[in-house]
Amino acid sequence: MQVPTKTLVATVAAFAAGSLAAQGMQVVKIGHVAPVSGAQAHYGKDNENGARMAIEELNAQNLVIGGKKIRFELIAEDDAADQKLCDAKVHGVIGHLNSGTTIPASRIYHDCGIPQITPSATNPKYSQQGYKTAFRLLANDNALGAGLALHAANNLKLKKVAIIDDRTAYGQGVAEVFKKTAQQRGIEIVSEQFTTDKATDFMAILTAIKAKSPDGVFFGGMDPQAGPMLRQMEQLGLGNVKVFGGDGICTAK
Fold first, then answer.
1. pTM higher than 0.85, yes or no?
2. In the chain, at which end, N or C, are there fewer CB atoms within 10 A of the end residue's CB?
């Protein structure tokens, strides 16, 4: 889910170069925003630590922009601090982690004239708003959901699949694209279930899915739900069912 953060920092700095030279400033402030508390804090802290490491490496190079020796400074915030970064007059933002926070924040950054690069938000709406300040560095859900459906049909040879999504901008979006492409490839969607990104008990929806005898379960969501879900599937005797999903469940947890 992460991409090289050094690249993100350097790219944001490049967008800031013009204003930096004009103002004769020597400090480039880079904002980083992600969930650093709650169930997804491990993702957010990993991204933040990556940004800190990248800034340390860049500062060690004694870079010059517009004839001025510059120093990068990281301003790290938890989600919902987007307006605070505008007030702090950062030169660019790395984040947010989730599509649900990235999309509304992008309008604020656009209005403040701050370039924003998300390392992980995949909902297509983010880059369809027309903001020249908004950038992403990985495939969106249209590519991700379709690719997973093709893998299910062509490689896993699945015939009947149940879908679960967490109703977030990410989970719902990737599940909808998966469903459309899977059906086009001849996969029968035998059950569609919904949960939240706060849930930990999935016994009811998994029991309903078990009655449909699927050979695969697609989950649109993140690893704090995928982990307990896998454990409960084992408890219900669904251990032989293929479980797959988007990059949000790609974690050692």
1. no
2. C
13: number of Cβ within 10 Å: 21
Q: Which residues on neighbouring strands pair with residue 245, listed in sequence order?
A: 219
* Coarse DSSP helix, strand, coil percentages of the chain, rounded to the nearest 5 percent: 45, 20, 35
Q: Where does the pLDDT of residue 194 fall: very low under 50, low under 70, confident under 90, or very high at 90 and above? A: very high
Least Cα distance to 160 among 242, 230, 233 occurs for 242
The CA distances from residue 185 to 121, 164, 179, in Å, are 27, 19, 10
How far is the C-alpha of 187 from the C-alpha of 149, rounded, in Å? 9
Per-residue pLDDT for 231 more than 80? yes
Q: Could you tell me how far CA 21 lies from the centroid of its own chain?
A: 33
Q: Which of 102, 152, 109, 142 is nearest to 126 (CA)?
A: 102
